[in-house]
Amino acid sequence: MTRSCEEMRDRVKSIVFKPEDRKTLDLTFGPGIAADLVGRTPEALAKAEKEGRLAAPKQLSNGRRYYTLEDLTHIREALGIHAGKAPDEDAVIIAVQNFKGGVGKSTITKHFADYLALHGYRVLVIDCDPQASTTTMFDIQPETLIDDEETLGQFLSPRSTFDNFRQAIRDTAWPTIKIVPSSLGLQDAEWDLTATLREGGQAVREGLQRLRIGISSIVKDYDVILLDPPPAMGFLGLNVMAAATGLLVPVPARQLDYLSTIHFMDTIAENIEVLEANGTPVDYGFIRIVCSAYTPSKPGENDMWKMMQATYANFLLSQPILASEEIKNATQAFRSVYESKPSASHATYQRCRDNLDSVFGEVVQQVRQQWPSKSIAGRAGETVTSAAA
Ligand SMILES: Nc1ncnc2c1ncn2[C@@H]1O[C@H](COP(=O)(O)OP(=O)(O)O)[C@@H](O)[C@H]1O
Ligand SMILES: [Mg+2]
């Protein structure tokens, strides 16, 4: 059975991935979207092009102008547009946390990473789930990492001597997204970490802080670091909670998932106590619940969404992620909607993207609040300081 599973996996991959086995991105943007992504008007871009501050955009044979991902980077550099944090600030580390499987953690991690990259942020994704679906969506095949010494599993395991976190970081098809992929060895790391319980004290504390320590060595190099946690709570999950500086909790608008979030909240609270009792206090800059799959026409889901609003109030993102065939189809092809062409009508595809954009836009507001150089409070503070000076 194992063999036939492996054969089938290889067949699926040979169909889905390009023959050279690397995903290639060929994203292009019209002037309107390009301007939106860099935060300028199309007129401002056209003016800069006319004045020679920007290279003229590429043109299709029909005369339509377009920009590539690299062009967006050049525009930002040429016009001094800087989306992310100041150099001396730390990356915001977001755990897409929920202890249940199938609630949309990996889907959100992948889509949010792509969204951030499109908007000019430098992103590191750390896949802490041995199931490795996020890793696969970034076109790294976890099985190929099995004999590799420089993996997350090796870094986390107290039995391993590998301790250069930076070496576990790989490239993706996106120039500004890097990934620390998951591998099958991550499960072994969980066991090794759990074994520190026998030693107690310092060993447990170090076991809980491994990921936090690894991230601290690269925390200035990225704007946002996204953690995709394992679905069960153990040492890996505690490492994720200890390393994060913000939580994004996906909850689908389904009765059972909603009810299990009560349990989730209890577990989070207990885990924070465990971390604190072991010398690893956490302090999250924000916690947000995101409704991760909502079908307004489905009986009960509308009531569920209202209940979520009543329960979580300001902790709930104001827009739910709509359940969408576009998302389902894209992820089945190991891609995000941002990397895919419409699978049905263009209007459906655009609705899906607009919905994701508005949800992620809200999270970005939370992210920016964490950087004094970007937050409203920080800017107000600066004015006060300079006035005083
Ligand atoms: N908004 C959505 N619309 C449609 N399908 C979705 C949506 N979010 C997630 N899915 C699908 O649900 C399944 C589980 O999602 P996944 O992100 O892998 O969950 P988790 O990482 O929490 O286990 C996937 O097949 C994914 O395509
Ligand atoms: Mg997952």
TrEMBL record:
InterPro entries: AAA_dom, DNA_Partitioning_ATPase, P-loop_NTPase. This is Replication protein A. Pfam families: AAA_31. It comes from the Bacteria. Residues 93-267 form the AAA domain. SUPFAM superfamilies: P-loop containing nucleoside triphosphate hydrolases (SSF52540). The lineage of its organism: Bacteria, Pseudomonadati, Pseudomonadota, Alphaproteobacteria, Sphingomonadales. Signal peptide: none annotated.
